[in-house]
Each structure stands twice: as structure tokens, then as C-alpha cells.
Amino acid sequence: MNTPLQESPQPKTILLVEDNDSYRQIVAATLSKMLPDCQIVEADSVMTARTVAPVESLAVALLDMTLPDGMATDIIEGWQPYMKQGLKVVVFSSYEAEEVAPALQDLGVHQYVNKERGMKPLIQAVQAAVHSADPAEKNVQSAPGSPTMRTEGACHS
């Protein structure tokens, strides 16, 4: 009796866009540790972000608000059709949320995190975005920044 081979799921891809090399390396290393089944792709500018990985392959994009050649909103505006199809975008910056939240909300950003809050809220936001991008995780709901936010789970689609 032949049993069909189960195809292994493709790892979810997270695009990390940050122009500060040291900070980007720390975030990438932390994401790799906390979400080991995800593929982390790095970029340091708007132009690189647009070319380093096909947007349709992304599950989550983690974008620094201010980049050397533009703003995260420059990237997000071009990604609107993909965001409507499930791409989750998390934006981080040193700006206060009140300064940027209205514009980001209008663009459909999944979550905004202030860099000054540290690494934990940033990683939690990405984890929540990864889980909400996973059809198997649709029933999981947690408030942004909640201490009970799920941190386990695979990054396979």
C-alpha cells in the first residue's frame, strides 16, 4: 500500500530592514534564536528591501521607520496588495507611537514598536505577526505587548 509522501512545509520568511548594522545583527540573531524555523532575510535600505526577497515570499516584514534612502512607509505603500493577502508588517523606531501610529494604522501595519522599549517587545511583536500569518494559529489572539503572548510555535506555513 502506497502512502503519499508528506511535503515538508516551507519555512516562513521574515524580512528585517534596519540600517544600523550592529542593531540589525542583534535583532537577526535574536529572531533566529526565538523563531528557529523561520528564514531571516536582511536589508539595510528601502532599495535593498525591495530587491533582496520577492515580497510574495514574505510572511512578516520588520521595518525600521527611518532608513537612509526613505521611510518604511515608502516600502509599505507598494506592498498594500500583499498586505491584504496576509503579509504582516511590524514597524519599529525611536519615534513615539503617537507621532506615527495614525499613518501606520491607515496603511494597515500589524504593529508598531518603539525601539526604546527594548528587544523583548520587538520580538514579541514579530512572533505575534508570524502566528497571525499562520492559518493554524488564527484562533490565537493576544493583546499587543501582553505578557501572556504565545512565544512558542513553528514558523512553517
From TrEMBL:
One of its GO terms (biological process) is phosphorelay signal transduction system. The modification 4-aspartylphosphate is found at residue 64. Residues 139-149 have a biased composition (Polar residues). The keyword Ion transport does not apply. It comes from the Bacteria. Pfam families: Response_reg (PF00072). Residues 13-130 form the Response regulatory domain. Residues 134-157 are annotated as: Disordered. The keyword Amino-acid biosynthesis does not apply. PROSITE patterns: RESPONSE_REGULATORY. Transmembrane segments: none annotated. Coiled coil: none annotated. Keywords: Phosphoprotein. This is Response regulator receiver domain-containing protein.
